[in-house]
Amino acid sequence: MASRRAADALIASGSVRVNGDRAPATGLLVDPERDTVTVDGRRVQPPSRHRYVMLNKPLGVITTAKDEASRRTVLDVIGDEGKHGHRLFPVGRLDGDSTGLLILTDDGDLSYRLTHPRYKVAKEYVVTVGGLPASKDVAALRAGVKLADGMTAPAEVEVLRKEAHRTQLRIAIREGRHRQVRRMLEAVGHKTVALERTAFGPLRLGRLKKGDWRVLTAGEVAALRRATGLEAR
Fold first, then answer.
1. Which of 85, 197, 200, 206 could serve as a FRET partner for 6 with CA atoms 20 to 30 Å apart?
2. What are the residue ranges of CATH 3.30.2350.10 in the chain?
3. Annotated catalytic residue 8
């Protein structure tokens, strides 16, 4: 609304009201979540403390804030307009050879809970693999498979499409190990040809095109917070 000095003048003039009352000359502590502040009858709301962006990560882009090899990063894709003056960082990782839904934010508490296995937030992928997985392969993925770093938790697995030499699957996991989905499929004898993340918790990629981004709505942020226990259901 105004600089600090100009704001003081507005308050002194009586233009500023808190819950309908004139602010006292001695000052008043305001809770932005509970108090209504108006200037000449117009409500003033502070900007959101954090910024939340959804990106449909393109192929070949690196999921990091800065790359020593000068490769294109997800922050390069959203640019200054996407960052909007915030110091954003990606929530979790998507490999360079993977595409799909990636969240970027400066909300460290939410990011931690979204990626920590303790909170069991599901991540869903549509994966194309070489060959035709047998029923026993699908059953193994659903039960959990043994990797070099231990057994995986059970996954949701659905066969979406079968072609002559490849199969498309929907896989949802609640862990986040390095290249986990690819390693799980390799453990049952199938190499990943393409991998796209289509959902993260309550968020879905929808019609967002590759390389495009958008700011999350207040409802989407609230849904993420509920999914991680940061907000009452």
1. 85
2. 52-226
3. no
Query: Per-residue confidence of the chain (233 residues) as pLDDT tens digits?
Result: 677 788 888 999 999 999 999 988 778 888 877 889 999 999 887 666 899 999 999 999 999 888 888 899 999 999 999 998 888 999 999 999 999 999 999 999 999 999 999 999 999 999 999 999 999 999 999 999 999 999 999 999 999 999 989 999 999 999 989 999 999 999 999 999 999 999 999 999 999 999 999 999 999 999 999 999 987 55
- The top-level CATH class assigned to 52-226 is alpha beta
The model carries a pTM of 0.79
Structure-block tokens of residue 179: 């290249």
Q: Catalytic: which of 95, 97, 106, 137?
A: 95
Between CA 100 and CA 98 the distance in angstroms is 7
Q: What's the per-residue H, E or C state across the chain?
A: CCCHHHHHHHHHHCCEEECCEECCCCCCCCCCCCCCEEECCEEECCCCCCCEEEEEECCCCECCCCCCCCCCEHHHHHHHHHHCCCCCEECCCCCCCCEEEEEEECCHHHHHHHHCHHHCCCEEEEEEEECCCCHHHHHHHHHCCEECCEECCCCEEEEEEECCCEEEEEEEECCCCCCHHHHHHHHCCCCEEEEEEEEECCEECCCCCCCCEEECCHHHHHHHHHHCCCCCC
Token representation of residue 35: 């108090």
